Amino acid sequence: MRKKQRSGTLRTHARRTQKGLQYDIAISYASEDSRIVGTVVRRLKAEKGLKVFFSPDYKVDLWGKDEREFERIYGGGARVVVPFISKDYVRKEWPLREFRAAKRADKTRDYDSILPVRIDDSALTGLRRTVQYLSTQDHTATEIADGLIRRLRALSGSSAARVVTARRRDMARLAGATREALGIIVTSPLPADTHWLTELFPRIDWKRNSPFSAGSTSSKAQDGASKPRRQLSAPSCSAQMKRSGGVAGLRRSHRTLNTPTFRCS
Question: Average pLDDT for residues 182-197, to the nearest whole number?
C-alpha cells in the first residue's frame, strides 16, 4: 500500500525561483559538530520540497570555488540560515565568515532569517544574548527539524504580505516632493492600474488625479469630443519640471493648461 503524501508538504520551489533564492535553509556549523548537525539535516531532507544547503552534500558543486561562494549562499542565497553554535563554532574562521554574511543579509530582510541552535553556551560575537534559540540539550534532532519546517511554512504563507510591506516602507523613505515628482514621471508614459498606484503613493488620491481613469477630465474636451493630447516621455517630464521650478511650478503650469496635476502634457 502506497504511503499517503503528507498534506503539509512544503511548496517552496516556485517562491525560491521568484525571489532568486537557491536554498530554503543553509546550515552553518563547525566540522567537530557534524554528528549532531547531521541528524537534524537528515530529518530536514526527508521533507519533500525542502532544499537544504549542507556543505558535505555539495562537494562537487563547491569544487574549485572559494569563500565568495559561501558568502553568496549564506549572505542571501537561502531564506533562513541556521548556525549551530558551539565552542568550536565561535573559534573557527569559516563558520564565523558564514555567520557574518548571514548577519548582513538579515539586515535587509523584514523577517528573522537567522535561527540559532545552541550546542553549548559559548558566546558568539554579533549574536545578542537575548535572541531566542533552540538547544540540542533540551530538544531532540526531530524537534529542531520540525520547528524549522514550521517556521518555513509560516514564511511561505506570509510572503505576499512581506513584499507589499517592504514596497511601502521603501517608498516612505522618499521625501514628499520626490514622491510626487516620481508620480508625475512614472505615470506620464505608462498606463497603470489605480490600485497599483495607490500602493506606491498612498497619500495621493489616484481616483481623482489619475490621467488613466475613466472619469478623468483630461480624457474629454469641454464640448464632449475627444481631443488628442501630446504625451511627453519621462526625460521630457523631468526637463519640464526643472523649467517650471520643481513640483510646485509644474502644478501651476498644469492648472493653467487645465490638465491633471500628475501628468506631463
Answer: 61
Alpha carbon distance 74, 55 (integer Å): 11
Answer yes or no: is pLDDT of 195 > 60. Answer: yes
Q: How many domains does the chain have?
A: 2
What is the H or E stretch that residue 118 is in?
A: strand 117-118
> Same domain for 227 and 135?
no
Per the listing, cell 481616483 goes with 207
Rg of the chain (C-alpha set): 26
What pTM was computed for the model?
Answer: 0.56
Of the candidates 196, 152, 145, the one whose C-alpha atom is nearest the C-alpha of residue 171 is 196
Angstrom distances, CA of residue 147 to CA of 11, 141, 180 = 17, 10, 45
Which pLDDT tens digit goes with each residue over 62-90? 999 999 999 999 999 999 999 999 999 99
Three-state secondary structure call for residue 26:
strand
Q: Which domain holds residue 118?
A: 13-162
**Is 4 inside a domain boundary?**
no
